[in-house]
Amino acid sequence: MKSSSNRSRGVFLATVLLLSACETEAPHATPVGSDAALTDNGVDATDSAATDVITVDAPTTDTGVDGGVACAPVASDYTPRVSMSSTDPWPACISDPGLYVRFDMSTSSITRATAFERIHIDATGGRTTGLFDPTRDPAAEEFTAARMVYLEAEGLDSRVVRRTDEHYPQPTPNNDCRVAEVVTANPDYCAGPARLLPVITANFRDGQVATLGTPQRVRAARIEAALLWFFYISIYKESLTCTTVTADCDSSWAYYTGGVQRTEARYISFARYVQSAEPAAHDRIWDGVLAVRCWRDLDRTTPATNVALRERARDQLDRALTRGIVVVLQARIRAAATAPVAERAAHLAFAGVIGPLLDRAVRVRSAADADRLASVLVAADPARADLDAAVATLDRLFPCP
Amino acid sequence: MSVSSPCDHRARRAALAAGLGVSLAGTTLRAQDAPDGEATVRNERSSAETRGRSAGEVTRDDLDERAPRSSPDALRFVPGVTVQQTAHGQASPFVRGVTGQQVLLLFDGVRMNTGVYRQGPNQYLFTVDSQTVERMEVLRGSASVRWGSDAIGGAVLVSPRGPTLDPARRGLTLHPSLRGRYGTADGELGGRAELDAQLGGSVAVLVGGGYRDVGQLESAGPVRDLAAGRVPPVPYFEADGRTQRGTGFREATFDARAVWRLRDDLQLVAAVYGYRQYDAPRTDLCPPAYGSDRECLRYEEQFRTLAYAALRGDVGPRLRDVDVVLSYQRSHERRRLDRPLSFATNGFIDDVDTLGLAMRAATPRVRLAGTAARPLTARFRYGSEVYRDSVASEAWITFTDVDLTRRYSRGQYADGAWMVQGGLWGEAEVAYGSRVRVRVGGRLAGAAASAAGDAASATQPVDVSSLAALGRAGVEWHPTAGLALFGNIDQGLRVPNLDDLTSRQQAGPGFQFENTALGAERSVTYELGARVRVARLELEAWGYAMTLDDAITRALRTSADCPAMTPQCAASWSRFQLINAVGSSVVAGAEAAARLQLPGSLSFAATAAYAWGEGPAAPGSGASRVPLSRVPPMNGTLEARWRHEPSGVYLGAALRWSADQTRLAPSDLGDARVPAGGTRGYAVVDVRAGWRWRDRVRVGASFENVLDTAYRVHGSSINGPARSLLITVATRL
């Protein structure tokens, strides 16, 4: 009887196994460390990271400027930090106290700004050394862990793949950068998928396998630069689409600040870089963010109708943002001028990504300067004098607004 | 839907089957109750389950004639049922305005609902091969006393086809058959081969297998939104503006059903049904509404295997309608999210193994009092069942450019979670003559669930159990020979399952995360119905109101409410958590059906249904009551059929229509499947024709959507097929 029962059970189990045999199992996770290859100088990247840890919260550079830089707002600018906007031509609005008032209590962009920080350092994930630290070469596994953060559902990648740069005219009749053909035909407008994504994915890929030829820190610096540019164009883009979706004003604010008020002085992502490089520029970006919110407070219909006021606010924001990305770039150029060789490569790699992206803004002001800057910023080993000249040119073209 | 009584249907079919049986030297034994309620031999489940209730039915003849694309699709002519499709290879029936976990699916009496059925529409009825179905019945309204948890809005009872078993025959009898289908709207090409074999006088087996390859579905174009006439982001159209990306799939099925006739009134059934679906994209995420057009979530494998053994029939004079079923069901789901621009794919596997034991029986009808002309009789049905689900769930990411895979700490569900549910029930039917029947019943239901916590994903452990009692009462009154009136009060129950308690997922309206403190939701359906049969006309109408207390519903959450270590929650545009709503939700509506049989085998049938749902608003939303999610708009059908019995030719035409749906729940507003402002109404015309020679050859053609109307069922990701032809051919030796 018992044997019969066992036999029946055996037949049943065999049947079950047979019926489920066609299922495809999950792939085996690649063992951690199997991809920890060598850096270009032949040192195991993991070992290198373990023995040469220097954690940075912001670019460890001598910016050469301080918070005392004088900015020059134009007369039509919104200036909430000056007597709560009472001296500018803007009507009273919700932003006058200097605080950003959200439309929606949930702003998903905050998570993406935070993800940038987690790509750099993810303490809860056990990664305490900074991916973007230019003084060290991250291990291959650090790139893998960082890329997992980058690829989180609804995370940074989900927006990079469709991000538009509204500094360029919208293509017609189709401006949908989700569509491959549109991206191919309009690489400047579809900057996310056409300009940034290739940089990000290629450098994550190379970092994960630690291929020889390029230092790991150079790859990290390129990713860092591309993501900062993503924030730069996202802030501007969201200020435009706030015309029809008010929560996009929140996103504009969140992409810059990471979801905090100016007075909280907790700086993450793009704001961290700008504040570190030039506090005055940081303040002016805040003014621009609040100008956009002020416009939307004064123009509450959906879609918004006061296009003139919107463009006034967005112009102010754009001038400040551009100054912001410029001072971040300047900081890296200055650092490149004085850093040790290995670190210098990382700073130049950063500049090599930002430089071409900034070319449009430079060329609008001076084609000759644009050509000179381009030659310096993409050079393999630019001279100290050329770097100093590039910093000066950028200051001249993009003074603190 | 047919408005005649199930009993009459069965009698007609039994007569037809008998006739066919003589000609084919084989008799299919069918479920049937004699007019006095006494059960006779059966090899299918009794459909006495729906007697006295609001119900609709789809027969094998209906299926052959209408040639539905799937089992859920077969229900589109049943009033009160709307078939929503999130993908071409998925479909979910809404019954009286609810779906998913709130509609119980049963295959031959075995629960299909597992512990991971989702809140939203789910695809699992699609895993029933319509070629294996003999009959589908939809019991509308709460039905948990008889069927247990999940029967809130109703139950779908699927009865499979059985082998031919002629007790008078000896030796080996074989009936091979072949069926084929071809459709132009999606290039569907498929077929099925089966063998109907009888071995001796007591054993018969039906073995079959099928395959179909379904391509991208062509629609009649975009269905513009009601808000501003814009083209919604879902579905995504190819360059021709008609072909829908994110559609198509491949499907293989196999089944075997053996019947061993122990006695004239008792049989043993052993059966296995397998469904294998491959590469079925989820249309609203292939591509996603706001992502790259190269991104795609597809169900690489959607498998379901059901095996069971059952003892059915009358065991003794006092033990009638016995049905003891021991079942094993395995659901396997493997999904892949391709992100080619980023050189990454996300993978997911969710498996559920379910063991079940269900028992039911009935007493004979006994005379309590009264006269021979008007006896007072009673019959008692009773049963119990227990099902145990165990879940395996995992998720990973593969970087395709470096061929590197990393596993996440948890999948969509808590890996290793289990759930047990079951109950004891009894139902008495007291009849006074042939005019009045009163039914009362009750159930004691229990459930328990357990899942381990996971620190890496801040997943809370689950260890819950519950007991609940519920009841039902109904009365059926036949004041005249042609008129029947019905009144029912039925309680429904849904205990939170492992999806409610442990899942984290990107659902249609946003990111949904778990709530380990959920309690059961309970419903009460109040319904009144009337049925009139006058000569060639049959009319049936039902009105109902269903209250839903402690409804398990999605509540909007802020980023701050998201579980720790789950950045994708806060990163989503919308976040939801399942909660027990404070206050009652209500679904009210009506269904009507009419059938007119004219001389010359010409018949007309019409159906109409309306549902209205409202529930409490989330605190702080500024409203007190809001519409319930995805409740279908008013809809109906009109169908004309003509059969020329001598030649076997049949013709048919059908109109399917729906009104606009503008009553949207807060969660609908962020759901890409629901166009801005709501879903536009439609009217679609189909024409059918065919020829049948006895049971040997059947050729059918369905000319679908002849006016090439762009239409979409409310809540669906796909638009309905364009003007197209669906051809079916079947032969049996």
Supply the CATH superfamily name of chain B. TonB-dependent receptor, beta-barrel domain
Bulk shape of chain B: globular
The top-level CATH class of chain B is Mainly Beta
The Cα radius of gyration of chain A reads 24 Å
Strand content of chain B: over 45%
Uncertain runs of chain A: 1-5, 33-67
Structural class of chain A, by secondary structure, is mainly alpha
Biggest interface goes to:
A-B, 49 and 55 residues
The number of helical segments of chain A is 15
CATH topology term of chain B: Maltoporin, Chain A
**How many individual β-strands of chain A?**
0
Computed Rg of chain B: 25 Å
Description:
The complex is a heterodimer of chains A (401) and B (733). In chain A, helix 3 runs parallel beside helix 9 (247-257) and helix 8 runs antiparallel to helix 9 (247-257). Chain A has one domain. Residues 1-5 and 33-67 of chain A have low confidence and may be disordered. Chain A has helices at 2-20, 45-51, 108-120, 140-150, 156-160, 180-185, 191-209, 216-241, 247-257, 269-277, 279-298, 307-338, 341-365, 367-377, 384-397. Chain A is mainly α and 401 residues long. Chain B is mainly β. Chain B has a single domain (6-732), classed as TonB-dependent receptor, beta-barrel domain (Maltoporin, Chain A, Beta Barrel). In chain B, the strands form five sheets. Chain B has a 22-stranded antiparallel beta barrel. In chain B, strand 4 and strand 5 (110-111) form a beta hairpin. The radius of gyration of chain B is 25 Å and the shape is globular. The model of chain B is unreliable at 1-46 (pLDDT under 50). Chains A and B meet through helix 1, helix 3, helix 4 and helix 7 of A and strand 14, strand 15, strand 16, strand 17 and strand 19 of B.
